Amino acid sequence: MGYIYNFLLCFAMLLPVTVIAAAQPGIIRYDTLHHPVIARQGMVVSQRMIASQVGADILAAGGNAVDAAVATGFALAVTLPRAGNLGGGGFMLVYLAATGETLALDYREMAPALASRDMFLDEAGNVDQKKARYSALSSGVPGTVAGFAYALKTYGTMTLKEVLKPAIRLADKGFVVTWDLAEILKARQDSLTRHPATAAAFYKANGDTYEPGEILIQKDLAKTLKAIAKGGSEAFYSGPIGKLIIAEIQRQGGVMTLEDLKNYSVQNRTPIKGTYRGFEIVSMPPSSSGGVHIIQMLNILEQYPIAEYGANSAKTIHLMTEAMKLAYADRSEYLGDQDFYDVPTKGLTSKAYGKQLASTIQLDKARPSSEIKAGNPLPFESPDTTHYSVADQFGNVVSNTYTLNFSFGSGIMVTGAGFLMNNEMDDFSAKPSVANGFGLIGKEANAIEPGKRPLSSMTPTLIFKDGAPYVVTGSPGGSRIITTVLQLLVNVMDHNMNIAEASVQPRFHHQWLPDRLQMEPGHSSDTEARLKSMGHNITSSSSQGSLQSIMLQKGLFFGASDTRRPGAGAVGVN
Ligand code: DON
Predict the structure, then answer these.
(1) pLDDT at 28 (0 to 100)
(2) 102 - beta bridge partners?
(3) 8 Å CB contact between 559 and 43
(4) What are 368-395's pLDDT values in tens digits?
(5) Rounded CA gap, 453 and 337, in Å?
(6) Alpha-carbon span 446 to 425, nearest angstrom
């Protein structure tokens, strides 16, 4: 890697400045604001450097992208307990070079059979947020272990035992606590120590927190991982681990049963596809809303010369914001688990609908959200999650986003099994038009039903150029995931940025309701002033998302970890 990097730098010094400055599509730029990690044989980019290394080692040992993705996912379950998980769920896109197809694996959590529409309403008919977010009822039936086992068996080349080995070692022998892990465990000490098993896993016996540099050992989790290595996902869904899950949930007043665990299934879905200025975009279908709205917003933006307007100019931000409002208004009306609700995916992602929506946007004036309602696509047709990206030497790529929902999910750890349960039931619409934990509202399409998957915003996404994978990306961020991924795509496809530059640009977010344009620090005050004069209600926001991306260009792998959240890293294979 060092060799290639030095070569590019030396080469840069010999070139006339004018050539360096003129970025052409397809030309690898080295005079950049931010540099990706460069490698020749493969790349893994995740929120934990140590987990990226686990994946890269699997690639170096001859494994394919799916082997590495599953190994990385299990390693994150040990080293990033706020989001990496066994008790949650997610989405994985797998591109197979041999067939040229992309699979969309939906291993999202499912509502238990005894879940019901009004289960989170109190006697007065109001949403009981504590119940929806921090109780045993807040957990959906977990999908991660089934998802990983399915991906590995169907598309991988290694055994569960092989890919679990590094995670087992990290849990059994421990890993070095990073600064951010130490900080978040300190910050969450009150809530996490309410549950004895959670307290025992993440805090010392005398109640002290771990300091950066100390070793965190998770023996119960190691035992669980060993049981999965030996007994496969059955050990989790119908064996000893399943029994521990149900014992914990029922002890705490939940309704999940062993039957629910046994009935869990991974859905291998058809991905959402669209095009944008000659690129092909492939993303996640419902039960995630991510793919639908990425394509919908790109279809709107394609109507404008965004490159000419410039990255993060007031005009570009205005147009993207108006597109976001329209998409999130439709999300609240039409999006839910497609196995339970007839989502008008084709209509929402059609070019004609994008054009029609664009025609409602004024070029220099923000439309108040109160004037925007969900559109009518039907006539055209009938603080935590984590993302990682993997690319191998054989041309395969994997884009995976998974979560417990909030940081540490429900906070409830399965006693004896060493992992946390999700609080994903809060992603349902507990009551029509009442906001969930991310301020998102929904209606019938996302109402609670037994066996249904709560609507997600997770957006693992691929860009293809000339038929080959070009960018692998995705992000955490709750409702802001979709707009974070959108900005990465636009930065690459319109503004021709390299993958590190595209990741580091200041971001913004609008989700229709509440009617406010959240802007990260780093935008200029002139830009904000122009946006205000157009009628945008600007609020400053905390950092938005954490993209973990790879760009494939000229036979090389360019990895970029977002600099917003500490501890992340890209590890290349040479
Ligand atoms: O599926 C979803 O959309 C949410 N459960 C994601 C939560 C999330 O991204 C939290 N973190 N940053």
Answers:
(1) 64
(2) 95
(3) yes
(4) 999 998 887 754 544 589 999 999 999 9
(5) 6
(6) 11
Give nearest CA residue, ligand 1 atom 6.
Answer: 478
SS3 content of the chain, % helix, strand, coil (to 5): 40, 20, 40
From 481, 485, 543, 546, the mutation candidate for ligand 1 (largest count of ligand atoms within 8 A of CB) is: 481
Q: Taking Cα atoms as reference points, which of 340, 288, 264 lies closest to residue 86?
A: 264
| Distance, CA of 265 to CA of 4 (rounded, Å) | 44
Q: How far does the centroid of ligand 1 lie from the alpha carbon of residue 347, in Å?
A: 25
Strands 89-96 and 101-107: antiparallel
State both tokens at 426. 């809060």
Return all residues near 442 (Cβ < 8 A) that are at least 6 apart.
331, 332, 335, 336, 428, 429, 432, 436, 455
- The residues, any chain, with a CB within 8 Å of residue 197's CB and separated by 6 or more, are 220, 248, 413, 414, 415, 416, 418
Helix (H, G, I), strand (E, B) or coil at 520: coil
| 403 close to ligand 1 (CB < 6 Angstrom) | yes
pLDDT at 22 over 50: no
Burial class of residue 359, CB neighbours in 10 A (0-12, 13-18, 19+): exposed
Closest CA to 544 of 498, 510, 497, 501: 510
Cis peptide before 514 (omega within 30 of 0): yes
Q: Which tokens belong to 511?
A: 């989700």
Q: Is the CB of 347 under 6 A from ligand 1?
A: no
Answer yes or no: is the C-beta of 456 below 6 A from any ligand 1 atom. Answer: yes
For 442-485, the pLDDT digits (tens) are 999 999 999 999 999 999 999 999 999 999 999 999 999 999 99
420 Cα distance to chain centroid: 18
* Cα separation values, 372 from 323, 335, 360, 515, Å: 11, 17, 10, 10
7 CA to middle of ligand 1, Å? 41
Where are the alpha helices (H) located in 107-175, listed in sequence order?
A: 129-134, 144-155, 160-172
How far apart are alpha carbons 211 and 177 in whole angstroms? 7
Question: Which of 144, 332, 458, 483 should be mutated for ligand 1, with most atoms under 8 A from CB?
Answer: 458
Residues 263 and 179 sit within 8 Å (Cβ to Cβ): no
Q: Is 539 an annotated catalytic residue? A: no
Query: What is the structure's pLDDT at 6?
Result: 31
How far is the C-alpha of 253 from the C-alpha of 248, rounded, in Å? 9
For the record, the structure tokens of 44 come out as: 């893994």
Global pTM? 0.94
What six digits make up the tokens of 442?
């929904």
DSSP line for 11-43: HHHHS-HHHHH---TTSPP-S-SS--EEESSEE
- 562: its two tokens: 């977002």
